[in-house]
Design a protein that fits this description.
The chain has 3 helices and 3 strands; from the N terminus they run ααβββα. It is globular and about 30 Å long. A 3-stranded antiparallel beta sheet has the order 1-2-3. Helices cover about 45% and strands about 25% of the residues. With about 70 residues, the chain is an alpha+beta fold. The N and C termini lie far apart (about 30 Å).
C-alpha cells in the first residue's frame, strides 16, 4: 500500500498532467480511484481542489500550485 505522502504526490502529478493535457476525464477519475479517492470537490472561495478518501481529507491543492 502506498504511503500518504506518495498518494499526495501522485494526485498532484495527475492534476498537473490533466492541467497540461485535458485527456479523458474517465481515465483521470479511474487513476484517482485507484489511489483511494472517493470524492473531489472544488472550493470556489479558496480556489482549491480537495480530494477525499472514504474517511479523511487526503489533499487540499491550490489551483495556483497546478498552473
Amino acid at each position: 500500500m502506498m504511503e500518504l505522502k506518495e498518494i499526495k504526490n501522485t494526485i498532484f502529478q495527475l492534476c498537473r498532467e490533466r492541467s497540461n493535457n485535458s485527456g479523458s476525464f474517465e481515465e483521470f477519475t479511474t487513476q484517482l480511484s485507484k489511489l483511494g479517492v472517493v470524492r473531489q470537490t472544488y472550493d470556489v472561495i479558496k480556489n482549491e481542489l480537495l480530494f477525499y478518501s472514504k474517511n479523511t481529507l487526503l489533499l487540499s491543492l491550490a489551483i495556483s500550485d497546478i498552473d
